[in-house]
Fold YbaK/aminoacyl-tRNA synthetase-associated domain-containing protein.
Amino acid sequence: MSMSATLQDCLRSKGSQYEIVHHPHSHSSIETAAAAHIPGDRLAKTVLFEDEHGYVAAVLPSTYAVRLSELWEKTGRRLLLAKEIDLRDLFKDCEVGALPPVCTAYGMQTYLDENLARQPDVYFEAGDHEVLIHMGMDQFLNLMDRAERARFARRMQGTPT
């Protein structure tokens, strides 16, 4: 599948400078970081939540987990993890589990965790399980300019940085 059309449009519209990084097929963000030989703290993962009002995306380092209570406080919503079956309909140009962080382009409110924003550069899924986009943090923040920055994640025990 390679890069999603939605992501390509976002990168083009922002004039983003980036490189494409190919890696062996992976099934999780921790596995992706290892396969691509990149620091897990610099690999963005996108987690989708939902409630009766719709979907919310959380973008954070792959070595971190969402603190639901903090996300609830930030959003004022009692969000739950979105069902995988719904993701297929929402992200038609992506493989399940390989969501790019540009969820505002899919019409979703998006939150970017400050722990990721502090990194010098970032890698993220391009829409499949074998391609990453790599860019400097200034380029990434420009790409994510419609996302709200917040603190809602904590480092998972025993994950490599």
Remarks:
- The longest strand covers residues 43-51.
- The helical segments are 5-14, 29-36, 68-75, 84-90, 114-117, 137-143.
- The radius of gyration is 14 Å.
- The chain is about 25% helix and 30% strand.
